[in-house]
Amino acid sequence: MASSPPSSSAIKDAKVLMVGAGGIGCELLKTLALSGFPDIHIIDMDTIEVSNLNRQFLFRQFHVGQSKAKVARDAVLKFRPHINITPYHANVKDPEFNVDFFKQFNVVLNGLDNLDARRHVNRLCLAANVPLVESGTTGFLGQVTVHVKGKTECYECQPKPAPKTYPVCTITSTPSKFVHCIVWAKDLLFAKLFGDKNQDNDLNVRSSDAASSSKNVEDVFERRKDEDIDQYGRKIFDHVFGYNIELALSNEETWKNRNRPKPIYSKDVLSDEPAQQNGNLEKKYESDELPVSAMASLGMKNPQDIWSLKENSRIFLEAFRLFFTKREKEIGNLSFDKDDQLAVEFVTAAANIRAASFGIPLQNLFEAKGIAGNIVHAVATTNAVIAGLIVIEAIKVLNNDIKNYRMTYCLEHPARNMLLMPVEPFEPNKSCYVCSETPLSLEINTNRSKLKDLVEKIVKAKLGMNLPLIMCASNLLYEAGDVEDDMVAIYEANLEKALAELPSPVTGGTMLTVEDMQQEFVCNINIKHREEFDEEKEPDGMVLSGWTQPVSAAENKDKSVGNGASTSDALITAVESEKDDEITIVSTLKKRKLPDESDISNSAAESKNQKQLEVIEDEDDLVMLDGDSDSVKKRRLS
Ligand SMILES: Nc1ncnc2c1ncn2[C@@H]1O[C@H](COP(=O)(O)OP(=O)(O)OP(=O)(O)O)[C@@H](O)[C@H]1O
Ligand SMILES: [Zn+2]
């Protein structure tokens, strides 16, 4: 590390901005510094956590709680003291990072972990006309893409996979996989018992449905005055695992082609224990010094043990009791957090009891936590490979070497005996609402919909704008922030009325201009009136077209790298064809066929001595790809 690396003049004069100093960012800063980049600015809003230390190697235990950007700078200056590194402990969406700020850089490099920040940086790079090298990793998968205004597609030209969602009825009535039980336990039961009671929740629907046939279930989720906590826990248990299942069974149609679930009542599972014994028996294990944990309280230690139905029932009741006795103040404000031990225990137990009822194999707490927290374990080596590729692309960008720009996917492709797949970037998508000027079209019931619904459901949620401002010709219709009461009244009124208040109301179709000052981003939306919407298929009550919609979970095959990944969300679904050794990278709109091997031989990312790529580090073990294309397996080197 002591000798200076050779640096091309493009690197010597470069000023670069890195966004994110996490898993990819730490590797990237080190590689930039060692490659001779003299002037690096880093934005990261986070402080260091213990869980970062296994892979974010610039950080040490004693840095926990300090700014990632600042500590990363100090760590790198220790071995490259003569370069400039400017840290910002801030959100990249802060107004200080405006177009003028972005314009000072030759290239921007992203090492982020969320769609929102990525979209924001993409838009500012377009507005400032600064090239962007974007990246993401999930476990062993990763990718690097290059976005240069007018030359390649922008980050938003292609749709991104939507986070996995499940039909409500699968979750509430007909689960067939363990993940369905987890979603039910976490998003319905946990949220209902410990979260905001006023929020819509499908358990509400079920209990009010039930209320019409049985008068005493209406308040089942409410604790009666002076009701003993263990009795209350058993009442909830019997309601959700017993009574609700019986109710569901009464609908014969549902079970014609399915296995019928089995109602589970606490007295049957815990038959040898009187109603109040669960808590009382175990209180002797409880100590104020220990973290609040039902497992600890019941003397259960191993998170990799699969609990029996009886054990799950005891954990369920004990976790329930602990929430109400030890964490009472938080009740009403809790949302599931994968790092909250008691919440994980409760959700694991509830999911397992439901799984038992539906004949689905039970899982241990470790597995359940991974599913509930959408955890894909980060792999330091993938981050390092991706950081190297970012620097390779950054150097090409600085040299304006357009014909060699590559998007590179880090994706095992055993048949080709390679791990990195470079493809030529696409041209900008002419119908991209972000980097082209194509107007969007919005069908909406103008008599019923409010301007503020349009802002929430379309402008913020779908177009990713932070601080929108809406104009109709030269008339201001909506702006974010503190506004006068009469403006608020317009937002609350239906759209028809809001448009009618303008000097020249439009009846047929109206063009709205939506602008986000913070992102220097403008797009046009053509409003068309439509009377009816299908509640199931069009739940927003409005339909936006002319934009690239996220890919639904169903279309994502197994290898999809989704948005909820723990490290960084990568974006591409790779599908291997069964017929031959062809691989296509499906980016939803188009299939991207990889160039022949001869085509990619000039790519900097593709190494002539591919053999080097066959050995990768798997945390502390080495794994090697077998050269035999038919029986390719990871092999551990002993
Ligand atoms: N809007 C933003 N502004 C600035 N930094 C951001 C923004 N959004 C995300 N980041 C940073 O991007 C980095 C992403 O790093 P990484 O994917 O390794 O996540 P992490 O939070 O460090 O780890 P993990 O999520 O796996 O526990 C984080 O350090 C995070 O603070
Ligand atoms: Zn675009």
From TrEMBL:
<keyword id="KW-0067">ATP-binding</keyword>
<feature type="binding site">
    <location>
        <begin position="113"/>
        <end position="118"/>
    </location>
    <ligand>
        <name>ATP</name>
    </ligand>
</feature>
<dbReference type="InterPro" id="IPR042449">
    <property type="entry name" value="Ub-E1_IAD_1"/>
</dbReference>
<feature type="compositionally biased region" description="Acidic residues">
    <location>
        <begin position="615"/>
        <end position="629"/>
    </location>
</feature>
<dbReference type="Pfam" id="PF10585">
    <property type="entry name" value="UBA_E1_SCCH"/>
</dbReference>
<dbReference type="InterPro" id="IPR045886">
    <property type="entry name" value="ThiF/MoeB/HesA"/>
</dbReference>
<feature type="domain" description="THIF-type NAD/FAD binding fold">
    <location>
        <begin position="9"/>
        <end position="432"/>
    </location>
</feature>
<feature type="binding site">
    <location>
        <position position="44"/>
    </location>
    <ligand>
        <name>ATP</name>
    </ligand>
</feature>
<dbReference type="GO" id="GO:0005524">
    <property type="term" value="F:ATP binding"/>
</dbReference>
<feature type="binding site">
    <location>
        <position position="154"/>
    </location>
    <ligand>
        <name>Zn(2+)</name>
    </ligand>
</feature>
<feature type="active site" description="Glycyl thioester intermediate">
    <location>
        <position position="169"/>
    </location>
</feature>
<dbReference type="GO" id="GO:0046872">
    <property type="term" value="F:metal ion binding"/>
</dbReference>
<comment type="subunit">
    <text>Heterodimer.</text>
</comment>
<dbReference type="InterPro" id="IPR023318">
    <property type="entry name" value="Ub_act_enz_dom_a_sf"/>
</dbReference>
<comment type="pathway">
    <text>Protein modification; protein sumoylation.</text>
</comment>
<dbReference type="InterPro" id="IPR030661">
    <property type="entry name" value="Uba2"/>
</dbReference>
<dbReference type="GO" id="GO:0016925">
    <property type="term" value="P:protein sumoylation"/>
</dbReference>
<feature type="compositionally biased region" description="Polar residues">
    <location>
        <begin position="600"/>
        <end position="612"/>
    </location>
</feature>
<dbReference type="InterPro" id="IPR028077">
    <property type="entry name" value="UAE_UbL_dom"/>
</dbReference>
<protein>
    <recommendedName>
        <fullName>SUMO-activating enzyme subunit</fullName>
    </recommendedName>
</protein>
<keyword id="KW-0547">Nucleotide-binding</keyword>
<dbReference type="InterPro" id="IPR019572">
    <property type="entry name" value="UBA_E1_SCCH"/>
</dbReference>
<keyword id="KW-0833">Ubl conjugation pathway</keyword>
<keyword id="KW-0479">Metal-binding</keyword>
<dbReference type="InterPro" id="IPR000594">
    <property type="entry name" value="ThiF_NAD_FAD-bd"/>
</dbReference>
<dbReference type="GO" id="GO:0019948">
    <property type="term" value="F:SUMO activating enzyme activity"/>
</dbReference>
<feature type="binding site">
    <location>
        <position position="157"/>
    </location>
    <ligand>
        <name>Zn(2+)</name>
    </ligand>
</feature>
<feature type="binding site">
    <location>
        <position position="435"/>
    </location>
    <ligand>
        <name>Zn(2+)</name>
    </ligand>
</feature>
<feature type="domain" description="Ubiquitin-activating enzyme SCCH">
    <location>
        <begin position="325"/>
        <end position="369"/>
    </location>
</feature>
<dbReference type="InterPro" id="IPR035985">
    <property type="entry name" value="Ubiquitin-activating_enz"/>
</dbReference>
<feature type="binding site">
    <location>
        <begin position="20"/>
        <end position="25"/>
    </location>
    <ligand>
        <name>ATP</name>
    </ligand>
</feature>
<feature type="binding site">
    <location>
        <position position="68"/>
    </location>
    <ligand>
        <name>ATP</name>
    </ligand>
</feature>
<keyword id="KW-0808">Transferase</keyword>
<dbReference type="Pfam" id="PF14732">
    <property type="entry name" value="UAE_UbL"/>
</dbReference>
<feature type="binding site">
    <location>
        <begin position="52"/>
        <end position="55"/>
    </location>
    <ligand>
        <name>ATP</name>
    </ligand>
</feature>
<dbReference type="GO" id="GO:0016740">
    <property type="term" value="F:transferase activity"/>
</dbReference>
<comment type="similarity">
    <text>Belongs to the ubiquitin-activating E1 family.</text>
</comment>
<keyword id="KW-0539">Nucleus</keyword>
<dbReference type="Pfam" id="PF00899">
    <property type="entry name" value="ThiF"/>
</dbReference>
<feature type="domain" description="Ubiquitin/SUMO-activating enzyme ubiquitin-like">
    <location>
        <begin position="442"/>
        <end position="533"/>
    </location>
</feature>
<feature type="region of interest" description="Disordered">
    <location>
        <begin position="592"/>
        <end position="638"/>
    </location>
</feature>
<keyword id="KW-0862">Zinc</keyword>
